[in-house]
Amino acid sequence: MRIKKCTVVTVSAVLMHSTLALAQSGVSQTDSKSARLEEVLVTAQKRSENIRDVPISITVMSEQFLDEQGITNVNELSQLAPNLVISASPSFSFVTMRGLGSGNNKGFERSVSLAIDGIYYGRQDYLLEALADVKQVEVLRGPQGTLFGKNAIAGALNITTGQATDEFTGKLAVQGGDLNRERARFALAGPLIDGVLNFRVSHDQDKYDGYIRNSVFDLDPADNPHRQNVDEFESARDARISRLKLHAPNWIEGLDINFSATRAKVFGNGVGLQLTKAEDYTLEVSRRYDPQIESDNSDHQGSINQREDTNRIGNSYSLQFDYTLSDYLLTAVIGHSFFNRDQMFDADMGPVDALRMDVDDYYAQSTVEFRVASPQGEWLEWVAGAYLFDADIIGNTRIFLNTLKTLEILEAARTGGVSPVVGLANMLGLNNAVAASQNNERFFDQNTRSLALFGQTTWNVTDKLALIAGLRVSKERKVAQGILAYPDASSEGVFNIFLGEEGYDERGDRTEDDVSPKLSVRYTLSDEITVYGTYATAFKAGGYNEQAVTKDNFTFEPEQASTLETGVKTRFYGGAATLNVGLFYTEFDDLQVSLFDGLNFSVGNAATATSYGAEVDGQLIPNSWLVLGGSIAYLHARYDEFTAGQCPFTPESESGDVCDLSGRELSRAPEWEVSFTPLISLSRMIPLLGESIPVDIGVGITMTYRSHLYTTVDLDPVDSMGGHTEVGGGLKFAGLDGDWEVAVSVKNATDKTILLGGNDVPIQPGSHAGVMAGGRRIFAEFTYHL
User: Fold this and answer.
1) Which residues sit opposite 529 in a β-bridge?
2) pLDDT digits (tens, 9 = 90+) for 60-103
3) Is the Cβ–Cβ distance between 166 and 766 less than 8 Å?
4) Measured between alpha carbons, how far is 520 from 376 in angstroms, rounded to an integer?
5) Is the separation of the CB atoms in 569 and 580 below 8 Å?
6) Where are the alpha helices (DSSP H) in 356-444?
7) Residues 6 or more apart from 733 whose CB is under 8 A from it?
8) Where does residue 417 rank: exposed (0-12), middle (13-18), buried (19+ CB within 10 A)?
9) Which of 40, 437, 500, 601 sits most deeply, having the most CB atoms within 10 A of its CB?
10) What single DSSP character describes residue 126?
11) Residue 228 CA: distances (Å) to CA of 221, 223, 348, 353
């Protein structure tokens, strides 16, 4: 592995949070005394710029760097980008930056914006497509409302994929290993008609078995009618992403046209839930249906009796026109995307056939953006534009409740033992006329339409001083209908008794206006030192709660954020090292929160919250065979005022309990993060090895420490993860001409037990279930570059 082909560049724009801009780049010379880190180009401000000129906090990861680190899953970006937590699966997805994120609710807007090839995507489902034929990942921290819009209140993920080219290029990569993994990546680009039309086709397919064994699989269906057609292993994946790109360069003089079409098919058989804590009554009842059930979260074994399949199929299209007129660049970007998604979920999270949820969603969005960018390098540079977004989300959800099984659980919870089901049935006023199986029917239909005008100007006052001002003015309208209904009066009564539901048919129509300004200053002290500061605001719209159990919880209010950032970026040792330090302070008003109290979901607004912190990151090439990279991030994210917070769900809990969470930390907001990512060329470190073996041999290591964090809004200690270090790495052999590579990578090398997320088990106070990271996994991949 030659350093010139695998160098990690940490040339970051650290602002409020100093950022680790891990970018793959080259070393300009092989002599260790003159080796230097090359600069990185980003599109964080709607135009291609050197990362050192962008006064925001950015982490940049190139395709080559992701390959060197063995990154194959979007969740693994969390290990490389400080203060970013991603937990994405076909079933449920969460993203937080600096402790800010959005719950799993169809009515919620995103806190972290996702853009792929310049198109904003309004659902977190698209995260599973983010790394297909990826070229570069930009992680932008802090409010990005001026240029990225209303749903970038915590930050943005800006993804660029492979482009059509006028020369033939391509690659083929196949990977296998633990979990019967079968991953294949293919990309081919080149001219269709010389000088007229170029193309790129790509396909990324990743299939592997689950790592959570379902002990219900061992039961004989003939003797256990509650056992459905379950798989032996949960959390399996099968994702297939295909993309076609066409590029017409200079179709007419000055005009470039780019077209993209993407087809996505994603399957998963659940998130792989395990009991992380179980009350005695939970185990007592559950073992009547699965004698093997336990609450050891380190053994990768769960117990559910229902299938948990999720299928999503969708298409995305985009068309971009770039026209150069007298050095001004006029751009129009048009996008359309839609998907259908169906899901089955074992809602009681165990082997008892008590609760099941079926979901059928349809989502469609259309976007249009026009912008004009002035010539670069002038004393005044600017970009301005208009943006239109229109989206529909239609969801149909049904919960099936087995009355007798639910009563069996509730009776055990009430008595702490095994009492006749009839006892609680009589107390609740139920009789033999109530059917064993009941269901509700939930319908949600929401249309969102946004219109925005935006602009940003850079005044290069002197060669050293630049002043930047931006503004986004937006108007958004949401029209929604939410229905919670029941097929008969018996079902309505059962759901009211057990889950506190009250049927409704609510309609809403709301319009919100927002003005989001941005002010920045950048000053170049020398060729090696730049300092900067930024003030920015962002906005996340209010809306309608798809999961409301009564009409009183159908709406929630907008959220506002404002931030101050300052930082310094340095390069020294002739460009062979970087060191960046940044500070940030962010205030949130009416912070939106999604709560689950063990019975049902609710949505509300915490009064205020504050997030501040610091980050230090750096990069060093001490010699020709070693590249050292690392970062240290500190985050203090707290509720300033949240007097009506959710309490942990315990056997002693009373309906309507609230807890004062003022002064407490936000969920998914670890106080400390430390990363270390060295790359070593063994062929250069050991000259005899390089001379005797005609291949490059290299080693890459990723070590990430993350301090204690809570995964739920109620800050229940059971659903938290203690401080831990995750280690991964890889060994790569590459041909001297760079046309082939063989890489062996290991994930979670120390086989650490890591909780990704947890929650209360429905209707079972005191018991919890969670999703654990996979244990140690080893994969091997062969890549051939065309």
Assistant:
1) 570
2) 888 888 888 788 889 999 888 888 889 888 888 888 888 888 77
3) no
4) 18
5) yes
6) 403-415, 421-427
7) 695, 696, 697, 741, 742, 743
8) exposed
9) 40
10) G
11) 8, 12, 14, 9
Mean pLDDT value across residues 250-266: 94
Contact by Cβ (8 Å): 340, 362: yes
Radius of gyration of the chain (CA): 27
| Two structure tokens written together for 495 | 């759901």
- Give the model's pLDDT for residue 30: 42
Residue type for 314, please? G
Question: 399 with 440: CB under 8 angstroms?
Answer: yes
Can you read off the two tokens belonging to residue 702?
Answer: 């990723």
Q: Give the integer Cα–Cα distance in Å for 563 and 534.
A: 8
pLDDT score of 420: 46
Strand pairing partners for 720? Answer: 710
Q: Whole-angstrom distance between the N-terminal and C-terminal Cα of the chain?
A: 18
> Are the CB atoms for 115 and 121 separated by under 8 Å?
yes
243 closest CA partner among 270, 264, 266: 264
SS3 (DSSP) at 687: helix
Q: Compute the distance between CA of residue 754 and CA of residue 78 in angstroms, rounded to an integer.
A: 14
pTM over the 0.70 mark: yes
| Confidence at residue 38, expressed as pLDDT on a 0 to 100 scale | 67
Look up residue 772 and give its two tokens. 């654990």
Closest residue by Cα to residue 182 from 749, 784, 781: 781
Say if CB 560 and CB 589 are below 8 A apart.
yes
Nearest to 393 by CA among 333, 450, 335, 443: 443
* DSSP assigned state of 77: G
pLDDT at 311: 97
Cα(601)–Cα(564) distance, integer angstroms? 34
Q: What tokens appear for 571 in the block?
A: 């390069």
Nearest to 339 by CA among 362, 318, 360: 362
Inter-residue contact 77 to 69 (CB < 8 Å): no
Token pair in block for residue 149: 């819009």
Query: Could you tell me if 162 and 763 are in contact, meaning their C-beta atoms sit under 8 angstroms apart?
Result: no
Position 330, amino acid: L
**343, 492, 483: which is closest to 403 by C-alpha?**
492
Residue 385: which of 325, 457, 318 has the closest Cα? 457
Residue 397 amino acid letter: T
Local structure of 107: helix, strand or coil? coil
Element of type H or E holding 688:
helix 687-692
Instruction: Locate 114 and state its tokens.
Output: 């996702």
With H, G, I as helix, E, B as strand and everything else as coil, classify residue 367.
strand
Closest C-alpha to 297, from 772, 775, 723: 772
Question: What band does 646 get if pLDDT is binned at 50, 70 and 90?
Answer: confident
Assigned token pair, 374: 């002035």
What would the mean pLDDT of 474-486 be, rounded to a whole number? 95
- The DSSP call for residue 374 is P
Tokens for 471? Answer: 């503004």
Quickly count helices (H) and strands (E) in the chain.
9, 48
Nearest residue to 12 (alpha-carbon basis) of 141, 123, 185, 201: 141
Place of tokens 């798809």: 546
* Residue whose C-alpha is closest to residue 334's, from 322, 324, 320: 320
CA distance 328 to 483: 50
Report the DSSP beta bridge partners of residue 665. Answer: 638
Average pLDDT over residues 573-596: 86
Check if the beta carbon of residue 206 is closer than 8 Å to that of residue 185.
Answer: no
Residue among 628, 768, 602 at smallest CA distance from 699: 628
CA dist., res. 352 & res. 346, Å (int): 10
Name, in order, each residue with C-beta under 8 angstroms of 422's C-beta and a sequence gap of 6 or more: none
Q: What are the tokens at 139?
A: 């992680």
Question: Token pair 């998604």 is at which residue?
Answer: 341
Helix H or strand E segment including 66? helix 63-68
Q: Which range in 311-325, 530-544, 754-768 is most confidently predicted, on average pLDDT?
A: 311-325
